Amino acid sequence: HRPGLRCALLQAVFDMEAYIRFNEDYMKNTARKNYFRTSDFGLSASLLTLGFKIEFLERSNPRKVVFNFAKANGIERVSKHWWQKSLMVNANSFHENLKSLKSRIINENE
Known about the structure:
Elements lengths: L2 H32 E4 L2 H9 L4 E8 L2 E7 L4 H9 L7 H19 L1
Antiparallel strand pairs: 1-3, 2-3
C-alpha cells in the first residue's frame, strides 16, 4: 500500500468533482446572461404571441419549467409591462400560444 498515492488519487477525484461543479455553475450563469429566463407561463405565452423565440426549456425541478428566450430588443420592456398588467396582446394568438406551450412542456417531459 502506498498512502501517498491514495491521497493523490483522492485529491484528483475531489478536484474533478469541484471542476464539474464549477462548469455547471458557469454554464448556468452563462445561460442567465445570454437568455431572458422566466418560469411564468402567462408571460411566456405573451412573449411568444409578440414574436419572441423560446430557445429551450430548463427543468431544474420536476414541478417547475424555466422558459429560456433568446435575448432580443424590447423583451425586458415587454416583461415589465406584463408585470404592470399593461401589456396588450391578441387574445386568440395568446390562447393558441398557451396551448402550444402546454403541449411542448408535456412532450418534452416524455
